[in-house]
Amino acid sequence: MSEGGGEAPRPRGEGGWSERTDRRLSGSTVAVLVGSAATLASSLGARVVMARSLGPDALGALLLGISVVSFAGGAASLGLRMAAGRRIASAVAGGRSSDALRTARTAVGIAVLAGCVGGALVALAPALGLIGKVPVSLLPVLSPVILGLAVGNAVWGISQGRHDTRGRAVWRDAGGGLLRLAGVAVAAGVSGGLLSFALGWALGSLVGEALFVAYALRRGWLRRGAGGADRELVASLPPFGGLALVEQIRTWLDMLLLGLVAPLAVVGTYGLAQSVGRVLGMIEDAAAHLFLPLAASAVERGEEAELAAIYGKARSLTFSFLWLPLAPCLFRASDVVLLAFGPAHADAATPLRVLAASLLVPALLGYTDELLVARDRPGTVLSLGLAGTALTAALLLVLVPRWGVAGAAVASGAGLAVRSFAGWARLGEAPRRATLELRALAEIAATAAPAVAAAALLVRAGSVPPLVRVVVVVLAASPAAVVHLVRGIRSLPEAGGR
């Protein structure tokens, strides 16, 4: 074990290295999913409470406000998650402890500054008349979350570089999600007013990010070492910052544009569907937590075969776990919406189905952005993100006036699909080949087939209660996820972090 917590790579050709990497990736994915499961349940729970407590316009205003601060917080992170994560992973792998500490402190300092600036700008935006549909008092209540998100993303990158899973899974995902739900639940019990919900959600988010920072401090990742600021990290930020901005635009453009052109009630309906889609995205992110540092380490050693194996394993894990909640959203979207949000929001079923379908493309192709960053090609990721975002924006302008919330979902899904495929085409021969191997494709088909068959049978089954239909599809989609879950639980001791 190196001084910085890294592990000296084994010589190529040793049989134990690939198996050990496989176990660590499985364990890390399950550990993050435990936190993500809590986040998933709490995030959906918060949306359910909001949908059943607020009127259509108030719900639309709150979801639009959350979208604005989430967009600003992600942009204010300046891409520090990937930039710092990659540099720290390389420093740890090389035993350069002081370099890792210097990068971590620099990343957090930059995030604090950017978060404060971003929060102040968003808090002032309504008073300047820049966001007309959002109540003037709403964004100032939500804007401190921008600082929390910026710092939390920076610490996320630090934890990735350290190959740590517990901090994000336990404190940021599980703890933060439960705290947001608690804040929303208290608001519903106290007054049920718009500002009460905003304050409860914001406080839960901030405390969750603070717990994650406290974890990093306790692990010693932010302690002072030799040297001053990491100037190379600062110099590397422009493409990563641009990438973060493009990613946030891609993620939130549909909600932000709807907020400009559609009534708040329509924004609320679409926001419910998008919130479920974002929860599905959390599951997709689970394997990426350890994938980035593992891929960066493999690139550092020039091990293309090992890189392809890691890429293929991450794709298999992602699809297996994502398919479990994705299948009911694809095949029984109307039942999911009815059970979660009630009949008043039935129009959210169509955009939910479209958004779920769009997530299949990156799930099938794997982590293209992370692998390109591991190859030190953030500029390529930025270019692809710009192209995908431009396509999404153009389709939104054309389709939203014609198809409403369904058009917004189609535009968002198309941009994501095109971007994912273009990134996959630039990964290199070995990773591309890993996604097209017959055994890998057969595994994907075997994972999907039971749920497809169950959905087809339900169509012919006649009158079946909505809850039963959803449960049947979930159970049919679960076998592969259960197998990976058991393997991951057995591997948890190797995935906790160093």
What does this structure look like?
- The structure is a single chain.
- The protein has helices spanning 15-53, 56-76, 80-93, 97-124, 138-142, 144-161, 166-190, 194-219, 231-261, 264-285, 288-301, 304-331, 333-341, 349-365, 368-374, 378-403, 405-424, 429-436, 438-460, 466-477, 479-491.
- The chain has 21 helices and no strands.
- It is mainly α and 498 residues long.
- Helices cover 82% and strands 0% of the residues.
Short synopsis of the structure:
With 498 residues, the protein is mainly alpha-helical.
Label this structure with key terms.
498 residues; mainly alpha; 21 helices; disordered N terminus
Overall SS class = mainly alpha
> What is the subunit organization of this protein?
single chain
Please give the radius of gyration in angstroms: 22 Å
What is the end-to-end distance? 10 Å
The pLDDT mean sits at 82
Shape: globular
Strand content: under 5%
Q: What is the helix content?
A: over 70%
Number of strands: 0
Count of alpha and pi helical runs? 21
Could you list the spans in which at least 5 consecutive residues all have pLDDT below 50? 1-17
Major beta-sheet overview: none
- Give the H and E element order: HHHHHHHHHHHHHHHHHHHHH
What does the secondary structure layout of this molecule look like, with pairings?
Blueprint: H1 15-53, H2 56-76, H3 80-93, H4 97-124, H5 138-142, H6 144-161, H7 166-190, H8 194-219, H9 231-261, H10 264-285, H11 288-301, H12 304-331, H13 333-341, H14 349-365, H15 368-374, H16 378-403, H17 405-424, H18 429-436, H19 438-460, H20 466-477, H21 479-491
